[in-house]
Amino acid sequence: xxxxxxxxxxxxxxxxxxxxxxxxxxxxxxxxxxxxxxxxxxxxxxxxxxxxxxxxxxxxxxxxxxxxxxxxxxxxxxxxxxxxxxxxxxxxxxxxxxxxxxxxxxxxxxxxxxxxxxxxxxxxxxxxxxxxxxxxxxxxxxxxxxxxxxxxxxxxxxxxxxxxxxxxxxxxxxxxxxxxxxxxxxxxxxxxxxxxxxxxxxxxxxxxxxxxxxxxxxxxxxxxxxxxxxxxxxxxxxxxxxxxxxxxxxxxxxxxxxxxxxxxxxxxxxxxxxxxxxxxxxxxxxxxxxxxxxxxxxxxxxxxxxxxxxxxxxxxxxxxxxxxxxxxxxxxxxxxxxxxxxxxxxxxxxxxxxxxxxxxxxxxxxxxxxxxxxxxxxxxxxxxxxxxxxxxxxxxxxxxxxxxxxxxxxxxxxxxxxxxxxx
Length: 423
Ligand code: GDP
Ligand code: IMO
Ligand code: MG
Known about the structure:
The chain is an alpha/beta fold. It has three domains: 3-100 and 211-261, Adenylosuccinate Synthetase, Chain A, domain 1 (3-Layer(aba) Sandwich); 105-196, Adenylosuccinate Synthetase, subunit A, domain 2 (Orthogonal Bundle); 265-417, Adenylosuccinate Synthetase, Chain A, domain 3 (Alpha-Beta Complex). The protein has twelve helices and 20 strands. It has helices at residues 16-24, 76-88, 109-121, 133-141, 154-175, 183-197, 204-213, 246-253, 285-293, 312-321, 332-335, 386-399; strands at 3-8, 29-32, 41-45, 48-52, 65-68, 73-74, 98-101, 105-106, 201-202, 218-221, 261-267, 270-272, 306-308, 310-311, 326-330, 341-349, 352-354, 367-373, 403-407, 415-417. α2 (76-88) runs parallel beside α6 and α5 crosses α6 (183-197). The protein is globular and about 65 Å long. The structure holds guanosine-5'-diphosphate, 6-O-phosphoryl inosine monophosphate and magnesium ion. 6-O-phosphoryl inosine monophosphate is lined by residues 8, 11-13, 38-41, 126-129, 131, 133-134, 223-225, 228, 239-240, 273-274, 299. Residues 12-13, 39-41, 299 line the site of magnesium ion.
């Protein structure tokens, strides 16, 4: 197998960083293709904890080339900070090891400002990460965006920023009544930042094409999760990119190729950060126990993650929506030793019982039907208990694809591969 996509199958934070890191050992190129520094992918190496937001998780392996594709929204200021953190943790980052598409869309100061103002004063609060993701994608789609390569020429950059600011100026002045920098000030800031990104800018399309010709092994590192997808997710409480497998084709630049396997990273329970419906959310002490035991705080914003039981109707939907061929079940250790264990197997919706979520269904109106499972209490050292086996087999039976990986701790060693990836 030569290409595998890692996709979050829930609302993000399923443990994609850990799995990308481990599978990165077996492949040549790791590509981020959507989202931006709204992501927070945690990797634990011995005593060290590394949280990557923008730089692909392959950067930890010397033999891997990390690529940021044109579908990513790129904040050059945040990149500078992250690059320094990565270098400080002893990782060698050179233009040979990290390649960034000149066509990636830049997150400007105006984008971040607009994100913050909307969240603070707008009519709908999404609970964004405040990183300017939505406004940057809006600029891209409206064809007023700044591309990374624009940072290399001051005159071009200034002209584009002036055009970009015309409409926003009116919003900042009249609607939000906030201060904002002039186009000249923003051009100077971005032009300076562009100098440190310049060595990494590359025609990533041609680079990936060459890798394909050389038969290299690809890993596509998805950010967020399918339920946050702009088209497949719980709109409007979503992010602004295609987080499902479709995003690989448009955002990575995968010349004439295809993704051979799609691995859905799935937390053994469900979490969500930010606003939006969450059918299995727990508001009691059990929810608190999972939140505390699981250390469920956002890796990017530090917000508490909402917690609930595993939602199989939603998981069945994401298997279909993203063509998942297997899943990695993470954080099983958090459920181990709990006094109760439930799983949502269907919903009551508009007077009927349905067992798969589908587009158009109003998730805020469903009532989860919970099945009681026998709690498991495993240390994951020896053979699996019957209760754990039952939990895993129920999931496999319901979703129709195998559990290829189980993870039972944040460390690299706390994992079992039940299936071979990149043989
Ligand atoms: P990502 O955004 O999908 O990469 O996930 P995050 O890094 O935001 O959140 C996952 C958290 O769970 C991180 O703190 C990981 O170190 C941790 N983690 C990953 N897998 C496991 C696991 O199997 N068990 C436990 N206890 N922690 C895990
Ligand atoms: P990783 O890759 C979890 C959520 C935000 C908010 C919504 C929109 O670490 O799994 P945005 O800033 O993207 O406009 O926010 O999406 N969100 C995430 N939740 N994990 C993430 O990334 C997320 N990235 C965005 O909390 O609800
Ligand atoms: Mg995360």
